[in-house]
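Issue 218. Parser rejects a valid record. Input:
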Amino acid sequence: MHISKKKPAFNISTNLRHYLKKYNREASIPITYDDLKGWYDAMPLYDVDGEDTLWNTVVYSPSMQDEIENALVQIYALLKTGGDLMVIKHLRLDRVDYCRFGNSNPFRVRIINSLNDIYDYFYVKRADASRVYGLDLEHILSPNKIEFLVDGSTLVEEHIPGIPGDVFLESYMDSPNLFPKGIAKEFVKFNERCFTMLLGDMRSYNYIVDITPDFDKEQYRVRAIDFDQLCYEGRKNHYLPQFYKENNKIVQFCLEKLPPETIYQYMYEERILIKKRYNLEKLRLLDLLNSMQDDTLSVPEKRNSLINDLNKYHNTTDFSLLGSMGQILQLHLSLMLERPKPQLRGMAKYKSRSKNEK
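Output the parser choked on:
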């Protein structure tokens, strides 16, 4: 079964809308995704080396420009200040870019502070149920917090700052400041988080590396930035970043820098941390999982394939009784966190996993 590069979008269900409203993820947004598609001109955006970024900077007609600028600044205020416009009078719209690549074709909005020229970004996308569930699961179960809002078929999402994974692997791995065991440890923990949450398609361009200087060495955090394929793929290995060929360089690096016992330790540590977050937000998480149970997030072929893989991994037949990806995730989470020590047989095969992309 091949990894899906283009996933269909799934609508926001009534149950999910109730969840979003209950936990203040729903808001009235003054402009929609479809409104932003009304540009009259666009030009390719190039990086500092003159390479095409696959983004187009779009231009709106003068009659629409003021309305669009005011609406986008208001949306930024909703994300950052709860909608209080009094503290952002010095902000203005600098640029709107449209992505020609990927599933969601987002708009990237750059807001600039006219007092000091510091800028920030946010994104406007079509609201896809998979992505919305993934964003909130990341918010609850990972060490990362994410702000986003949904209104109808429009999703507004804050920018996650960091170095794109593919850029990091190409340009930063040989840095003299690199703390090798630190980045290896973080990738192992990231790998474990993705599998625990069944977050797929974590190729190197779908996550970032956040670098924090410390007093004696750099600290790292690997963060997902693409949540479109949460609970969509049909193979267990599609939820483990170590199996993507785009990540081969960091996987081999981890195997060189960390002995199997240490890899096992970090896998265990991450499951324990996820379990603590699970217990802290148990009621909210159960609301989210209950909403997922009734939603369509994949196709029957992929669901049945994943059931077979997870039955083998957890040494059970319980997944065969389940009819939705939401139910599969709920059982998978409970089994991962009830017995948080990774399987020893899994550790014995860790080195071979990186060589056998499935």
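Fixed in the parser; the record now loads. The beta strands are 41-46, 52-59, 91-99, 107-113, 119-126, 148-151, 154-158, 163-164, 207-213, 218-224.
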